[in-house]
């Protein structure tokens, strides 16, 4: 194939984490553009760990530095990560593959940027994932990352820095004011298992009424997800309907994932809160959420509610992809993705205001249809897998 370039990714561990899926998403985009893609990792079994994508026949996965342990007696994790990054960089510079790479994409320690930049002329992209920040509950758009001297110095050696949404871009610009603005590349969600067939909604929520009106909120079970506010909104909405018979058709689904003891504890608190409410019998709390179930829930929801204070964008992109109505608080990353009154409704985080907007959407199918069409067009143009390929094509192989 003409102009078939070789793109090599340097990545430490292939696992079921957002950062791994993001990098794999970009790798698949380069493959879709017709380029050869090699993924160098130190640990991980791709056959067992990433089931959302079919990529083993598209991407060459090679192991490098697997002899370096992850820790030394449970300590020195950062030191070992630095050694792995240095080993990978030296391997690609001193013993390059038969087809030399045109582009190196890394998300490992920035020592790899220094080595590759100093010993070769390869073009380098670095994905800044803010690994130490993203797990913190208080992470928000006002957060500032304090890099070390060497981290900041080595970061200058990347031709482009990639971040996964516009709020991470703001954090990056505050944290590295001397560097140019990063390239915002959203993870496309319209590939892999997301394209699979839907599941009958009553297999997921068996107690739905025949003429159900389902409201949905999805997020991790953390305090920042603000599930309590969502349940308050649902209570206010039911009380405003008045007609008891009609209100019985309404059902709230709170769905998320529990992957840690803290999230299990938060799940228990949400369940206990639901039990104390009069409308508790009209709520369903789900603690596991396979991708295909998530798609089915969103597709069957009348309105998606989001009161989260976090800065993850995936939920909003999935709602746009399916063209569903969304009512969200005007805080965080949602304000960068949802266009108020066009692709969704943004309101103050107050139960009465949110319940009022939800009631209007449910009562106005023409408005919902109008917003649905605009949302789908917006997703197709800005956030789809094809738009990701176009964006990467425009920046990847230009001359320095």
UniProtKB/TrEMBL annotation:
Keyword field: Glycosyltransferase, Transferase
Gene Ontology cellular component annotations, sorted alphabetically: endoplasmic reticulum membrane
Gene3D superfamilies: Glycogen Phosphorylase B
Enzyme class, UniProt record, top EC level: transferase
Reaction(s) catalysed (UniProt annotation): a beta-D-Man-(1->4)-beta-D-GlcNAc-(1->4)-alpha-D-GlcNAc-diphospho-di-trans,poly-cis-dolichol + GDP-alpha-D-mannose = an alpha-D-Man-(1->3)-beta-D-Man-(1->4)-beta-D-GlcNAc-(1->4)-alpha-D-GlcNAc-diphospho-di-trans,poly-cis-dolichol + GDP + H(+); an alpha-D-Man-(1->3)-beta-D-Man-(1->4)-beta-D-GlcNAc-(1->4)-alpha-D-GlcNAc-diphospho-di-trans,poly-cis-dolichol + GDP-alpha-D-mannose = an alpha-D-Man-(1->3)-[alpha-D-Man-(1->6)]-beta-D-Man-(1->4)-beta-D-GlcNAc-(1->4)-alpha-D-GlcNAc-diphospho-di-trans,poly-cis-dolichol + GDP + H(+)
Pathway info: Protein modification; protein glycosylation
Keyword Iron-sulfur (UniProt): no
Topology relative to the membrane: Single-pass membrane protein
Record EC number: 2.4.1.132, 2.4.1.257
Protein localization: Endoplasmic reticulum membrane
Pfam families cross-referenced by the UniProt entry: Glycos_transf_1
GO molecular function, one term: GDP-Man:Man(1)GlcNAc(2)-PP-Dol alpha-1,3-mannosyltransferase activity
Residue span(s) of domain Glycosyl transferase family: 209-367
Family membership noted in the UniProt record: Belongs to the glycosyltransferase group 1 family.
Main function: Mannosylates Man(2)GlcNAc(2)-dolichol diphosphate and Man(1)GlcNAc(2)-dolichol diphosphate to form Man(3)GlcNAc(2)-dolichol diphosphate.
Name of this protein: Alpha-1,3/1,6-mannosyltransferase ALG2
Species whose genome carries this gene: Ceutorhynchus assimilis (cabbage seed weevil)
Lineage, highest ranks first: Eukaryota, Metazoa, Ecdysozoa, Arthropoda, Hexapoda
């Amino acid at each position: 194939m003409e102009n078939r370039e070789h793109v090599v990714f340097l990545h430490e561990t292939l696992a079921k984490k957002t950062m791994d899926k993001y990098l794999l998403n970009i790798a698949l985009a380069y493959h879709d553009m017709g380029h050869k893609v090699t993924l160098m990792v130190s640990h991980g079994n791709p056959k067992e760990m990433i089931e959302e994508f079919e990529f083993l026949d598209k991407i060459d996965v090679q192991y490098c530095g697997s002899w370096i342990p992850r820790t030394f007696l449970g300590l020195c994790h950062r030191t070992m990560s630095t050694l792995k990054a240095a080993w990978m960089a030296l391997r690609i510079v001193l013993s390059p593959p038969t087809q030399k790479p045109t582009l190196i994409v890394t998300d490992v320690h920035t020592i790899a940027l220094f080595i590759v930049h100093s010993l070769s002329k390869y073009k380098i992209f670095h994905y800044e994932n803010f690994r130490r920040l993203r797990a913190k509950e208080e992470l928000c758009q006002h957060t500032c990352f304090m890099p070390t001297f060497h981290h900041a110095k080595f970061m200058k050696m990347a031709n482009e820095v990639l971040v996964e949404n516009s709020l991470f871009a703001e954090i990056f610009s505050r944290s590295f004011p001397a560097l140019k603005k990063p390239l915002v590349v959203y993870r496309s969600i319209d590939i892999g298992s997301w394209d699979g067939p839907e599941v009958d909604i009553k297999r997921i929520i068996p107690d739905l009424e025949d003429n159900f009106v389902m409201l949905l909120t999805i997020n991790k079970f953390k305090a920042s997800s603000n599930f309590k506010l969502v349940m308050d909104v649902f209570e206010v909405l039911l009380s405003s309907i008045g007609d008891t018979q009609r209100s019985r058709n309404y059902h709230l689904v709170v769905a998320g994932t529990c992957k840690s003891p803290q999230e299990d504890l938060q799940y228990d608190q949400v369940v206990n809160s639901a039990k104390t409410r009069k409308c508790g019998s009209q709520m369903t709390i789900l603690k596991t959420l396979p991708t295909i179930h998530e798609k089915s829930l969103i597709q069957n929801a009348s309105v998606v509610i989001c009161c989260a204070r976090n800065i993850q964008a995936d939920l909003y992109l999935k709602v746009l992809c399916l063209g569903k109505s969304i009512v969200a608080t005007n805080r965080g990353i949602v304000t960068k993705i949802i266009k108020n009154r066009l692709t969704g409704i943004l309101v103050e985080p107050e139960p009465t205001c949110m319940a009022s907007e939800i009631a209007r959407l449910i009562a106005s199918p023409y408005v919902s249809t109008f917003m649905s069409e605009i949302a789908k067009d917006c997703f197709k143009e800005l956030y789809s897998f094809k738009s990701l390929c176009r964006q990467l094509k425009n920046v990847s192989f230009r001359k320095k």
